[in-house]
Amino acid sequence: MVDRRRSRGDERRAEILDAALETFAEKGFRGASLAAIAERVGLTQQGLLHYFPSKEELLVEVLKLRDERDTDALGDNADGSTMSLNALSTLVEVNAGRRGIVQSFTVLSADSVTDDHPARDYFVDRYRRVRRKFAAVVAAECGDQLPSGMDPEQAATLIIAVMDGLQLQWLLSDGEVDMPALFRHFVALLRD
Amino acid sequence: MVDRRRSRGDERRAEILDAALETFAEKGFRGASLAAIAERVGLTQQGLLHYFPSKEELLVEVLKLRDERDTDALGDNADGSTMSLNALSTLVEVNAGRRGIVQSFTVLSADSVTDDHPARDYFVDRYRRVRRKFAAVVAAECGDQLPSGMDPEQAATLIIAVMDGLQLQWLLSDGEVDMPALFRHFVALLRD
DNA sequence: GTCTATAAAAAGATAGAC
DNA sequence: GTCTATCTTTTTATAGAC
To answer: What is the CA A168 to chain-centroid distance, rounded?
Structure first.
């Protein structure tokens, strides 16, 4: 086990990363100024730049941190053994209670498809990884008994699509879209 | 029938709207400068502002135009009578051949969830309208015989979610995601 | 570590010439 | 209708004091 003690500087960095994620969610990457992020933690823009060399580097580190936390929260081991379709439904329920996180990923992932975006490689890689992981979950739970002759990787791609698409509509619907209920319906379709 | 003749000025406006949509797709709304849009049609930034009073107004008009063209392209009448689930599969196929359009809507719709975004009202209203329309299509084609006890509006919400979610993964996958095939699989699930 | 000062660039918008 | 000139604001980033 490595040393997990945190210096004061590490704590400050963590604060900044949280503030950055919130601000990116509210304003988008380009719309979020370093000054606005710095203000949230009681720093000036230049004070913030003492911890991160540039805005792009800050974004990359924000996304790295998010991944680590999500991995912890999902309780999915390296081999993915603890995950299940039910766990995914639970994840959707959890997400329905944290609009900020959902909004940040919706905004940043879509923004990343634009030209030379600093987060593009991250999201390309992330979707590939998540597809593989979800495909393993589907294969373990349904075997090859998927409706309509789908294979597990195709089912995984659809599962992710439903999650992302529901999040966008949910963010734009003022309570008209019941994300967890709809996701459960979709899982029911998959189970046949 | 109203007079459909176009003045030179109208043509210029149409050119600018096309250029704006392309630039928004490539750079996002905040990342697209008026100067970059103007350059595409051989104008200066100030020349462009002769046709549209502000960048926000330009965005609103771009989205209006898009809606009109989509309505034409889908051939959906006011009562929705000519639409079907098969027509939606065809739409997904068409979209797989026009990355720019898909990218523009992915980028702009997600951006619209940020604070005080000028396109937010447009997308909130659009999703509501499309849910109603798709629900009518589902009801006409499947009646109330939907799997898992879903109602037509819930099915419509899922259909839209799958479309949007697949588009995002498709844009970020370098050919690894077959959008039309996956959508057809999903429709097959709905049909039971 | 955090600040002040400041540079340097870019953007949206307005005024007015032609 | 389109341009040049210009204003004003905002933003990222650097240099250096404390």
So the answer is: 13
**Per-residue pLDDT reduced to its tens digit, B46-75:** 999 999 999 999 999 999 999 898 877 666
Angle (CA) A146-A152-A156 rounded to 5° is 110
Cβ-based contacts with strand C at under 7 Å: A 7-9, 12, 38, 42-44, 46-47, 50-51; B 32-36, 45-46, 49, 53-56
CA pair distance B62, A156, nearest whole angstrom: 35
CA of A113, C1' of D12: distance in angstroms = 23
Nearest to A21 by CA among A119, A155, A153: A119
Decide: CB of A48 under 7 A of nucleic strand D: no
Rounded distance, CA B29 to CA B167, Å?
Answer: 19
**CATH 1.10.10.60 residue window(s) in chain B:** 1-62
The pTM assigned to this predicted structure is 0.95
B1-62 is classed in which CATH architecture?
A: Orthogonal Bundle (1.10)
- Number of CB atoms found within 10 A of residue B28's CB: 24
DSSP A104-140: HHHHHHHHTTSTT-TTHHHHHHHHHHHHHHHHHHHHH
Instruction: Determine the distance in angstroms separating the CA of B59 from the nearest CA of chain A, rounded to an integer.
Output: 16
